[in-house]
């Protein structure tokens, strides 16, 4: 990750690309090979991200893309297919919803796009691919630098990498002319990386026979989110928060990733996955370790990644009694009636797959011992809201005992990851008037008030970083394995039984009652409401809450 740009006190103008100071330069020449060229990920996220990078001139001039998939097609048909897809996003409501497609940037990109029919499990396809890479590398002068992006189902990861190895496509030892930098080969792997601790270990062992760790970029798209990257900057660039960021001042932390989408057409995937596997050891744990890590000694990738792994190492495997699972019943989400999980297509009518998971995590180190981190994630919840909420310890009551005030409310610092990205601080003030009456108020920073809106699907920074060889925002082998280790006991326990109370939360609500009990049993704590912007509201937006 680049060091932060110089601080600004007025509303700064920035480069239109996420996370890059306006001084960001295009990376050096390279060729991007996408396995899974016909897939949803390529269409919905990778192509729009490449287009956004092209719009902001953050792709190299010497750049080309080869899309590989098993369906018969050719260069022009693939370009047309993606052109239609891009056009279909215009004015939409998805991650990529431009007002119009910039034809100059799009044409620039399509002129560099090629299609190669290939079977991911057939060695011959990789020999053909090698020849095609050589041809296109020469035509576009991409310097022999190649990124292989595995936008394919996870069952192909090991095999594709084996085949890349056999075809000598990922050899880092190619001879380079004395006056040129050695060409590099990098591999991007999507999630899920394994489906439990054993399979993650096996996959790491298998791919590390072919690749060096510094060639591997394991993507977790949460790390592509600006607000997630900002957690570290917020913590370590402000003198006033970090001194409070520990067990002396913090009561507990709540991390919520609530979604308003259901499982819908993803039944077969979800039946084998469930909410815990799908969201926790990867996305939610990224939020957890960004919040809990010690300050790194530099912005070097390994300095940061090691501090994250240290957080995981201090967490014992979660015991099943510290975990709650839920499954949605039919209900209404944002005013629309939706069916129960068990009635979704390709779902067993007696399924025990969870669509909601909550865990209590204890980090047993000097900073956090005794400060629980409660995490929860679920489909079809009340609102879409991802946030990290830090509750500070209560101030002494002594001064206010005589005022009629029954209890002091605690302060919350809330980092809103999405939507309504921002940070707020909730604290007490005296209500104007002759007596001492307390009122909870909130100071709010909203990204939209300070930064111009930008087209960003979350993959721009990640792709740029792969091109520049920066691994900071990618998971190292040990981090992935630690994540699985922490949840493994719960996964094992949940696989054995189907809860009697499933389905146990109504779609469009905040989750099962047992999740409330998980906090209540710890001295009466409770979850924050699942709301885009929970907490007190000023008079201008409604009556202030007391
Ligand atoms: C994916 C999960 O990795 O992340 C989905 O498979 C989930 O189930 C999605 O909906 C959430 O990502 P985002 O960026 O929409 O919050």
Which labels suit this protein?
Glucose-6-phosphate 1-dehydrogenase, disordered N terminus, 8-stranded mixed beta sheet, binds 6-O-phosphono-beta-D-glucopyranose, 31% helix, G6P_DH_NAD-bd, 546 residues, Rossmann fold, alpha/beta, oxidoreductase, Dihydrodipicolinate Reductase, domain 2, 18% strand, single chain, EC 1.1.1.49, carbohydrate metabolism
How is this structure best summarized?
This protein is α/β, with parallel strands linked by helices and 546 residues long. It is 31% helix and 18% strand. It has helices at 40-55, 75-89, 103-110, 123-140, 157-166, 197-208, 226-236, 267-271, 274-292, 301-313, 447-450, 460-468, 477-496, 513-520; strands at residues 30-35, 63-69, 113-117, 146-150, 185-189, 216-218, 250-258, 323-326, 328-329, 331-333, 336-338, 356-361, 373-378, 385-392, 412-418, 422-430, 438-446, 505-506.
Task: Characterise this structure.
- With 546 residues, the protein is an alpha/beta fold.
- The protein has 2 domains: 30-220, 3-Layer(aba) Sandwich (Rossmann fold), CATH 3.40.50; 225-505, Dihydrodipicolinate Reductase, domain 2, CATH 3.30.360.
- The protein contains 14 helices and 18 strands.
- α1 crosses α3 (103-110), α6 runs antiparallel to α13 (477-496) and α7 runs parallel beside α9.
- The two termini are 43 Å apart.
- Mean pLDDT is 91; it is low at 2-21 and 542-546.
- The site of 6-O-phosphono-beta-D-glucopyranose has 5 residues, from loops.
- 6-O-phosphono-beta-D-glucopyranose is lined by residues 191, 221, 259, 261, 278.
């Amino acid at each position: 990750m680049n060091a932060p740009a110089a601080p600004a006190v007025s509303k700064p103008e920035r480069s239109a690309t996420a996370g890059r100071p306006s001084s960001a330069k295009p990376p050096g020449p390279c060729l991007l090979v996408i396995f899974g060229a016909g897939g949803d990920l390529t269409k919905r996220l990778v192509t729009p991200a490449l287009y956004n990078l092209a719009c902001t001139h953050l792709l190299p001039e010497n750049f080309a893309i080869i899309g590989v998939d098993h369906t018969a097609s050719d260069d022009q048909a693939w370009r047309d297919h993606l052109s239609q897809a891009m056009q279909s996003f215009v004015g939409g409501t998805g991650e990529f919803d431009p007002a119009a497609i910039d034809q100059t940037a799009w044409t620039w990109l399509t002129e560099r796009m090629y299609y190669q029919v290939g079977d991911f499990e057939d060695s011959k396809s990789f020999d053909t691919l090698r020849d095609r890479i050589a041809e296109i590398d020469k035509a576009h002068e991409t310097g022999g630098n190649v990124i292989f992006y595995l936008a394919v189902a996870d069952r192909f990861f090991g095999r594709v990498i084996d085949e890349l190895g056999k075809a000598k496509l990922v050899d880092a030892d190619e001879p380079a002319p004395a006056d040129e930098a050695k060409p590099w080969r990098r591999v991007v792997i999507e999630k899920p990386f394994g489906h439990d601790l054993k399979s993650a270990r096996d996959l790491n062992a298998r791919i590390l026979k072919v690749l060096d760790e510094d060639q591997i970029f394991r993507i977790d798209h949460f790390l592509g989110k600006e607000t997630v990257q900002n957690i570290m900057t917020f913590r370590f660039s402000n003198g006033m928060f970090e001194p409070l960021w520990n067990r002396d001042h913090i009561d507990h932390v709540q991390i919520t990733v609530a979604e308003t989408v259901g499982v819908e057409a993803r039944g077969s995937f979800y039946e084998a996955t469930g909410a815990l596997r799908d969201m926790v050891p990867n996305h939610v744990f990224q939020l957890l370790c960004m919040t809990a890590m010690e300050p790194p000694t530099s912005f070097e990738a390994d300095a940061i990644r090691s501090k994250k792994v240290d957080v995981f190492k201090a967490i014992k495997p979660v015991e099943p009694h510290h975990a709650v699972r839920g499954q949605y019943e039919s209900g209404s989400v944002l005013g629309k009636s939706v069916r129960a999980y068990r009635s979704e297509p390709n779902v067993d009518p007696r399924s025990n797959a969870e669509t909601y998971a909550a865990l209590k995590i204890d980090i047993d180190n000097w900073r956090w011992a005794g400060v629980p981190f409660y995490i929860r994630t679920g489909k079809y919840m009340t609102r879409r809201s991802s946030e990290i909420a830090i509750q500070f310890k209560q101030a002494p009551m002594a001064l206010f005992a005589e005022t009629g005030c029954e209890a002091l409310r605690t302060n919350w610092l809330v980092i809103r990851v999405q939507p309504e990205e921002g940070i707020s601080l909730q604290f007490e003030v005296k209500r104007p008037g002759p007596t001492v009456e307390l009122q909870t108020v909130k100071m709010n920073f909203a990204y939209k008030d300070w930064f111009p809106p930008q087209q960003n699907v979350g993959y721009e920074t990640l792709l740029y970083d792969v091109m520049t060889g920066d691994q900071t925002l990618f998971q190292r082998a040990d981090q992935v394995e630690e994540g699985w280790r922490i949840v493994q006991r719960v996964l094992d326990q949940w696989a054995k039984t189907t809860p009697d109370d499933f389905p146990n939360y109504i779609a469009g609500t905040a989750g099962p009652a047992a999740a409330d009990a998980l906090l209540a049993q710890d001295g009466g704590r409770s979850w924050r409401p699942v709301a885009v912007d929970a907490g007190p509201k000023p008079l201008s937006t409604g009556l202030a809450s007391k």
